[in-house]
Amino acid sequence: MKITLGAVSRPLESLKIKTGDWGTEYPVIIEENCKGCGDCVVYCPDLCIELVEVGKDEKGKVRKVAKVNYDYCKGCGTCSVVCKHEAIKMEIKELYRG
Amino acid sequence: MTLFVAKKNGGVFILLEVRFHGRGGQGVVTSADVLAVAAFKEGFYTLSFPTFGAEKRGTPVASFLRISDKPVVLRDEIYEPDYVVILDPTVMESVNVVSGLKDGGFVVANYPREKELEDKLGVKVFAINATKLAMEYLGRPITNTVMVGAFAGITGIVKLDTLKETIMEWFSKKGEEIAKKNADLVENAYKTLEKRRDEVKKLGLKMPFEVKV
Amino acid sequence: MMKVVRGFYAVAYSVKLCRPDVICAYPITPQSEIVENIAQMYANGELGNCEYITAESEFGAASILVGASATGARTYTATCSQGLILMSEVLWNAAGMRLPIVLTIANRSLSAPLSIWNDHQDSMAMRDAGIIQMYVENNQEVHDMMPQAFKIAENHKVMLPMMVCMDGYKLTHAYEPVDLLNQEMVDEFLPPYDPPVKMTTKDPYTFGSYATPASYMEFRAAVYNAMERSKKIIEDVYKEWAEVSGRNWGGHIVAENCEDADVCVMAMGSLVGLVREVVKELRGEGKKVGFIKIRTFRPFPAEEIAKAVDNCQKIIVFERSLSMGSDAPVTLDVKSAIHKKAIDVYSPVVGLGGRDVPHKLVKSTIEEVIENKAKPGTYFKGLKDYEEVIV
Question: How many structural domains is chain A composed of?
């Protein structure tokens, strides 16, 4: 095996570990309810929600909604608790539904 | 089935080794511990201990249980288990859960589809949908009590009454209601798997304490 | 009463029965649950008049205990790893001030790299401080050791801090049956602490005051001699415990089947059970192997070891720590103990940073020595081939 002198490692090493399979539940974004306020982005402890453009609203302004990176989401449910617009609901993974 | 019985039947030395796999937060460590306490009540010497990947929820975790009619002195990890208990249906993606499983041994797993898992692991599996049951009874996906009940049910390693008593004591700190829910959950899982004990014999697999006279 | 309990509870419960006056600690994995359990007992009012003080660091915790001990209080703390190293300045002081603070060490590796797992590098780093050190093999032994530790440390001929070392996780987090002591028995065995000197606000003293070259050496010699004297006291306390408890854990060492052995195998801590079992197996296979469990590490039982290995040609010391640039710590002492004898010493270093030491590894390591396939000296077992690269 290779070890580095001084146990030095580069940043973002942890991205190699996909933690998306850790959770029992996962968040589902209900796009029509999402106002793009970004609360979930701020609160996500694993930094795996971002706002993405989904076109323009009727006034022609760019519309953004939350998008979850399921590679790393551990299904903690914090986002669904902090969402003020009922735009995130937690669903149990298929494997656990039986 | 007790120490006394084993001694009476020629003093056959028993050392039973069980390995538990799951993820942090599911109660992998507690599973082995509860069984260690319950088996002690049945007259055996026991030892249980954990190993962690990292101390956080979700990371793969294993714990170990030894049951014997003599004080347990071996403290190394269990490489050749008699039985394996799996608390999480996805942990086998990153961990070789059946590594070293002894001939005649089997797996008791939290998995919705038994046959599918058997094909995946290549060994006999007794499956129970523990996450679903835990959500029903406890409202949380903590699968340890189900799996303790299931494992004890299929192997008869401890009696149901002993196990329920242990569970009640274990969860007493969390209040009677939670303790009772867990005890009910254990009973459900125990009885579900107890019905399948015949299959173990039919398939030529081994039960824990069969004593050759 | 036999009960299946966790290692840290076995310690906490035993400490409670010793009626300490002041406990001060800072949490660190895998020691935390020991002091959490004690804190719980304190909150429940089970500790009588004992003061439980939470400190801002291990340095603070040890400092508070030095002060408390100087006032004549029976004092206790638990720590490990970085916490023990952070305490080290204070603990050297405690030894020099002759304060009988008792510590439980939940042995854990040292950084870097960061690791929370078990080996003996933390307590070994405190080897020369003037602190009595003993290592336990299971949770019954650590439960039994706490009253003995107070009795040894507080003996007027000793007056030194004492560390009871238990392997982190392997013991602290293990559930196993422990025959829990009762208060009457501990009270009878362990009298209240009778400090030879204590300070109060009305009767103040300076502890560990300044010593010039004209007297420093005598003070240090006195610590050295107290450590030497403690050998006899420790042995007496071990014996007394065997009588009152009915559990005989042996003396400074426990030698088994060494009289006719060609190879003597030594181990310390939680590895003892496994190594002893493997030696028994090898005996069963007709190999002339003996086993020595080292209980007391400081003071080092050199005479006892020299006597026990008198007839052997080879010694194997299973090491759980390193001394960078020399042989591993236990080996150094063993070699010094047998320096006049023509015995080869093999020092397999195993299980650093919590790496498991499997039955197979122990057996093959001993067999290699028996079959002349190993070279004397310090070497690693269970080590992967590695290449060191620049990131």
Answer: 1
Longest Cα–Cα distance of chain B, Å, equals: 47
Cis-peptide into C299, omega within 30 deg: yes
Residue of A2, A10, A12, A13 best to disrupt the C interface, most CBs of C under 10 A = A2
User: Is B131 within 8 Å of A24 when comparing Cβ atoms?
Assistant: yes
Residues of A in contact with B93 (CB under 8 A): 21
Identity of the residue in B45, B74, B79 whose CB atom sits nearest the CB atom of C273? B74
User: Residue A66 forms beta bridges with which residues?
Assistant: A51
Maximum C-alpha span of chain A = 58
Note whether C240 and C262 are same-domain residues. no
**B174 vs chain C: nearest CA distance in angstroms?**
15
Could you tell me if residue C389 is inside a domain?
no
Show the tokens assigned to C391: 């990131």
> Are C391 and A5 within 8 A, CB to CB?
yes
CA C149, CA C160: separation in Å to the nearest integer?
10
Instruction: Report the residue of B73, B77, B173 to disrupt the C interface, i.e. the one with the largest count of C CBs within 10 Å.
Output: B73
Provide the pLDDT confidence category of residue B2 given band limits of 50, 70 and 90.
Answer: very low
CA C301 centroid distance within chain: 13
Q: Which CATH number applies to B15-202: 3.40.50.970, 2.60.300.12, 3.30.300.20, 3.40.920.10?
A: 3.40.920.10
Cα C266 to Cα C319: distance, rounded to the nearest angstrom: 9
Contact B36 C4 (CB under 8 A): yes
Residue of A13 and C222 predicted with greater confidence: C222
| Among B158, B163, B155, residue whose Cα is nearest residue B179 | B163
Q: Find chains touching chain B: ≥3 CB pairs under 8 Å.
A: A, C
Q: Does this complex have an ipTM over 0.95? A: no
Q: Do A5 and C389 touch (CB under 8 A)?
A: yes
Is the same domain home to C259 and C235? no
A34 domain-assigned: yes
Give the pLDDT confidence of C306-362 residue by residue, as tens digits: 999 999 999 999 999 999 999 999 999 999 999 999 999 999 999 999 999 999 999
The alpha carbon of B3 is separated from its chain's Cα centroid by a whole number of angstroms, namely 19
What average pLDDT does the segment C187-209 reach?
A: 96
Q: Which two tokens mark A71?
A: 């590679």
Chain B environment of C277 (Cβ under 8 Å):
73-74
Interface test with B, best of A22, A78, A93 (most B CBs within 10 A): A22
Contact B58 A96 (CB under 8 A): no
Quote the minimal CA–CA distance from A26 to chain B in Å: 13
Nearest to B125 by CA among B89, B167, B171: B89
- Domain span at residue C356 reads 253-380
Closest-CA distance, C35 to chain B, in angstroms, reads 19
> Does some domain include residue C158?
yes
Does the distance separating the beta carbons of A5 and C386 come in below 8 Å? no
- CATH no. for residue C300? 3.40.50.920
B51 CB within 8 Å of a chain C CB? yes
Q: What is the pLDDT of residues B12-50, one digit of tens each?
A: 678 899 999 998 878 899 999 999 999 999 999 999 999
Task: Note whether B36 contacts C277, CB cutoff 8 Å.
Answer: no
Would C136 be classed as within a structural domain?
Answer: yes
Answer with the one of C245, C263, C287 that is the final residue of a domain. Answer: C245
CATH label of the domain that carries residue A28:
3.30.70.20
Residues C50 and C165 in one domain: yes
> What's the DSSP call for residue C319?
B
Residues C87 and C233 in one domain: yes
Q: Does the residue C387 lie in any domain?
A: no
Measured CA to CA, the distance from residue B2 to residue B40 in angstroms comes to: 10
Q: Do B135 and A92 touch (CB under 8 A)?
A: yes
